[in-house]
Every structure is written in structure tokens, then in C-alpha cells.
Amino acid sequence: MQIDPAATAWLLVSTAMVLLMTPGLAIFYGGMVRSTGVLNMIMMSFIAIPVVTVTWIVAGYSLAFGTDAGGGIIGGLGHLGLSGIDVSAVRSNVPELLFVTFQLAFAILTAALVSGAIADRAKFSAWTLFVALWTLAVYSPVAHWVWGPGGWLSVFGALDFAGGLVVEIVSGASALALALVLGPRIGFKSEAMRPHNLPFVLLGVGLLWFGWFGFNAGSAFAVDGKAAVIFLNTLIAGCLGMLGWLAVERFRDGHPTTFGAASGVVAGLVAITPSCGFVSPLGAVVVGLVAGVVCSYAIGWKFTAGYDDSLDVVGVHFVGGVVGTFLIGLLAAEAVSGGPEGLFYGGGITQVGKQTLGIVVVAAFAFTVSFVLGKVIDATMGFRVTREDELSGIDFTQHAETAYAEGVHGQQHKRPGT
């Protein structure tokens, strides 16, 4: 296979766009927490960049995209330390080292997404260790199942164009597991824990939306009509997600909010991620709208069930990922997918079953392994900060810094002894 210069140029741009999504997520998440935890929240995203990069180069890429080691479960060890990959290696019509980097950007973002569920209460050192172990034990195997050579879900026929299973459901299920391991924040259900900086939230979602075009259209590995429809689908779904969420707020609460607008955009983008390469623009309208409506209700589940998913990773990313992945079975159009058709296009119920199995298996695996990793870390080094540290502000206790000169009540933050 020869290198396609146009596809390579587009993937270089797309990779940079996807890498920008993690700082964008850091700003998005940072605006959503209280002022005493903004730096810690941003750092939880930023630390994922070097930790996942090192882990990916050492073993993650080989486990995810190496030659299947048997049964479609995990890749082999042939590319440990990126061995066997040089500047002349080609994969999917682009330099393999660029393919490595593009997929690395996905892994970084997925790890960072998980952090939103445990805002304001996790030890930074424990989180850093979790990210490294999780990349190898959760993300890499699922990436191999869905996208790797001989991956069993790929062979089975479950479809995921750009990460509904691998990114969204994996991050959401893992987030739920950690939320249960750490338990709720002090004051959960009894105190209002509102976003401290809504302009940050909107800036962050703007950066995420921009990067998402590279996330989805870059996954086409081509500069052609399919990449164009994916690009358009991504725009449409983000718009309809916002409109759906705002409509629910308007009729349920009486006021459409800026926070709802940002959340709706993300819900629509999450849902179109797995389906962007399989549905038509009309299908993208349905995907985005359904995700905006369903996710706007799903974020309330945590209060009913009692788990504290601080920044609604479960309600938006897990639920949105399920919506988008499942709707492939209904809305896949052969004119876009070039293959399977959904139930509404005459394809029968088969693809619905395949999508459902993929959702259940990936969610169960990610939740179980993440829960075990979280419990082991909690038992050995402790995953949660002390009550005193949480009450005094996790920024200062974990990083000896504060984001603002004055706290939310106008009191100066001072170092001990000053």
C-alpha cells in the first residue's frame, strides 16, 4: 500500500485537532467545577497527555493495533516500544507513525473524559496511576476488539466509526465505576454545586466542537465524499443536540440555559461519533435530537440512584454513546456506509442485535475492570483525599496553588504559616 499525500495531510491536521480536544476538555471541565477545584480538574486532563503518550508508545499501541494474539481479544507484542515501525511503514494509506499518533490522541481524550466523574475528591497521584493502568487494561483491549486487526467485535459486525464504543461508552462506564469507588462528594444532594465559570464552559465546548471535526472526519483516512458527509453530520448533530436539550429545559424548567446549550452540543457530538460514517445527514438530525433530549433527562439519574457523577460523564458520554451506537442499527444507510443497512432502511433486525451486543459487552468490561483497578488503588494508596482536604479546597491541598486570588466567599487563600 502506498501513502496517499492528500489523506496524510488531512490526517496531520485532524490529529492536531483531536489533540486540542484534551485542553478544550480541561477548560470545559474546569468551568464546571467549583472555584476551589478548577486547577485540579484542568490538571487531571493535562496529566493524561504525557501519561497516556508514554503508555501508548511502550505497549498500548501494540496491544490495540498489533497483530491479533488470538481470538480477537488483544493485539500481540510485536510493536512494544513501536518496534518494527519506521518512517516507511504504511497503515490505512497513511504513514503508520501518523496512524499511531492519531489513535494516541483518541486514547488521551478518552482517559481525560473519565476524570469528570470524580471531580473535587480524587488524589492526583492515584488518578495518574489509574490512567496508566487503565490505558493498558481497558482502552487498549476494547480498541483492539473494535478497530484492531482481527478484533472479535469487528469480525462479529458491530459498527463504530469513530468511537461510540471505544471512546464514549468506555469512558462513561469507567466513570461510573470510579464514582462508585470514591463515593459522593461532601454535600452531594444537599448543596448546590454549580459551575463556577460558564464562559469557560462555553469556550471549552467550542474547542471540543472544532476538534470533533478532526475526530470524526479524520477517521475516514481519506479526502473524499465520505469525509465530507461525516463533516456535515458532525455539525448537524451538534446543532440538533443543542436544540433538543434547550427544548427540554424550556418546557421542563421554563428557561433555556447556556450550560444546557453546551451540554446539548456535547450530547449530539457524542452520539454522532459512532454513527457519523453510517448515517445520512437526515439520520444525523435524528441522532443529534434524540441524544439531546435523552441525555438532558439522563443526567438526573445520579440523584435517583445515589452515585455522584460530578460532571455528568455517565449521563452525557455513556448515554449519548449508547444512543449513537444503537441508532446505527436503525438508521445506517448503504449510500453512506457502503455496507450494512439499518432496520429503517430495509436491513432487518440483525444490525440492531449486533450493536446491542457491542454496547453491553463493552460497557460491562470497562465498568468491571475500572472498578477493580479503582478498588486496588484505593486499598493500596488511597484514591480519595481526606475530608479536611476536600473541604478546604482540592486545588490548594493537591497542588499548593489556587486559580483565583480570592475564594468564592472573598477570603484570601494563604499558604500555611503566612
Give the % helix: 55-70%
Our count of helices gives 17
What is the radius of gyration computed over CA atoms, rounded to a whole number of angstroms? 21 Å
Classification by helices and strands: mainly alpha
Largest sheet: 2 strands, antiparallel
β-strand number = 2
Low-confidence stretches: 407-418
* Nearest-integer average pLDDT: 95
Strand order of the largest sheet: 1-2
Spell out the helices and strands N to C. HHHEEHHHHHHHHHHHHHH
Percent of residues in beta strands? under 5%
Q: What's the end-to-end separation, in Å?
A: 65 Å
Shape: globular
Structure explained in plain terms:
The chain is an all-alpha fold and 418 residues long. The protein has helices at 5-32, 38-46, 48-65, 96-114, 124-147, 152-156, 164-182, 198-217, 225-253, 258-275, 281-298, 301-305, 313-331, 334-337, 350-380, 387-392, 394-399; strands spanning 90-91, 94-95. Strands 1-2 form a two-stranded antiparallel ribbon. Strand 1 and strand 2 (94-95) form a beta hairpin. It is globular, with a radius of gyration of 21 Å. Residues 407-418 have low confidence and may be disordered. Residues 9-404 form the Ammonium transporter AmtB-like domain.
Main attributes?
418 residues, mainly alpha, two-stranded antiparallel sheet, 2 strands, 1% strand, globular, disordered C terminus
Any chance you could write out the topology, listing elements then pairs?
Blueprint: H1 5-32, H2 38-46, H3 48-65, E1 90-91, E2 94-95, H4 96-114, H5 124-147, H6 152-156, H7 164-182, H8 198-217, H9 225-253, H10 258-275, H11 281-298, H12 301-305, H13 313-331, H14 334-337, H15 350-380, H16 387-392, H17 394-399
Antiparallel strand pairs: 1-2
Helix pairs in contact: 1-2, 1-4, 1-8, 3-4, 3-5, 4-5, 4-7, 5-7, 5-15, 7-13, 7-15, 8-9, 8-10, 9-10, 9-11, 10-11, 10-13, 11-13, 13-15
